[in-house]
């Protein structure tokens, strides 16, 4: 069956909010450097846009953790598919994610990365779906809280499709 996608958050709203969050992060980290961890694949579009809006010196690393596969439900088992290239010791680190849903991915990732002794570790997410939380996660920066709908676009996929949509949409029929 083909999917119908309706717009939940427009491209303009997403861009405006990323600018705001980028400005807030720049103020909060004034005088410091920030090491961004992009969580692949979903976090890639948000990380690029956010990084451009941060005015303190930024370095980037990438990690791939997967729990959904091609399904719309988490398998509950989080797997590291690609690890970071660089150590975190002595760095101010920010994890950048597209969405916190059940919280399983991020609670796992935070535990793993804390064990690598960064100076600080915070979390920035484009979307937060608090109604679906199974594992508690402290979200430091969030662009939008959304209702319990399966969303796509801006990095988020449905069976690997729609990551490239420039807005956040809801999959209506699947
Ligand atoms: O809070 P949770 O219920 O754990 O869900 C959130 C995670 O699930 C998705 O990733 P996915 O595992 O689908 O991999 P992807 O980023 O490569 O699409 C999304 O990008 C988050 O990383
Ligand atoms: O709503 C969602 N959409 C796409 N991927 C996801 N991974 C967790 N929740 C979602
Ligand atoms: Mg996904």
From TrEMBL:
A Pfam family reported for this protein in Swiss-Prot or TrEMBL: Pribosyltran
Cofactor(s) recorded in Swiss-Prot or TrEMBL: Mg(2+)
**Keywords tagged on the record:** Cytoplasm, Glycosyltransferase, Magnesium, Metal-binding, Nucleotide-binding, Purine salvage, Transferase
Query: Which GO-annotated molecular functions does the record name?
Result: guanine phosphoribosyltransferase activity; hypoxanthine phosphoribosyltransferase activity; magnesium ion binding; nucleotide binding
User: What does the UniProt entry say about where the protein is found?
Assistant: Cytoplasm
Q: Which CDD domains match?
A: PRTases_typeI
Query: What's a single GO BP term from this record?
Result: purine ribonucleoside salvage
Spell out the reaction equation it catalyses: IMP + diphosphate = hypoxanthine + 5-phospho-alpha-D-ribose 1-diphosphate; GMP + diphosphate = guanine + 5-phospho-alpha-D-ribose 1-diphosphate
* InterPro entries (UniProt xref): HGPRT, Hxn_phspho_trans, PRTase-like, PRTase_dom
Q: What class of enzyme is it?
A: transferase
Signal sequence, renumbered to the chain: none
Q: Give the pathway annotation.
A: Purine metabolism; IMP biosynthesis via salvage pathway; IMP from hypoxanthine: step 1/1; Purine metabolism; GMP biosynthesis via salvage pathway; GMP from guanine: step 1/1
- Give me the Gene Ontology terms describing cellular component: cytosol
Whether Glycosyltransferase counts among this entry's keywords is yes
**This enzyme's EC code(s):** 2.4.2.8
Q: Which residues form the Phosphoribosyltransferase domain?
A: 12-158
Name the principal localization, coarsely classed. Answer: cytoplasm
To which protein family does this belong? Belongs to the purine/pyrimidine phosphoribosyltransferase family.
Quote the function comment for this protein.
Answer: Purine salvage pathway enzyme that catalyzes the transfer of the ribosyl-5-phosphate group from 5-phospho-alpha-D-ribose 1-diphosphate (PRPP) to the N9 position of the 6-oxopurines hypoxanthine and guanine to form the corresponding ribonucleotides IMP (inosine 5'-monophosphate) and GMP (guanosine 5'-monophosphate), with the release of PPi.
The name on file for this protein is: Hypoxanthine phosphoribosyltransferase
